[in-house]
Design a protein that fits this description.
Length: 127
Amino acid sequence: MDFDQSSEVIIRLAQEVISIVRRIDPKWNRAFWRFESEECRFGSNMSYEHPSGVALVSAMAEAKAYDFLNNLGRQLWETEQEPDRRFCVCLLVVDSSLNYEVKFERTDMSKWRISKLNGGSGRPAGY
């Protein structure tokens, strides 16, 4: 992975996620952006914690934001020149104090799914 290039993309992703969630809910505490990518398919979803629970960020209402984030996610994926070393899932966690953490998974496409279906909390599963 080209660490200089990937660091720039990760910082930009963190800034964008913070900006989006601040706009949606100024009282947010922590946000989660999950990106998954394969050779011919990629996409993401996002949620955030607020004082009364967890909310999912609507892909319909935030279509432009998701397009931008997905393009950044794909850029991050492409910073790894060796295809067999590319991640399949990236999880970005940011908090309202502007701290961030990024995690990568290379084999398990189901890692850290964000959902409220079937009893899901809206937080990344297993995080």
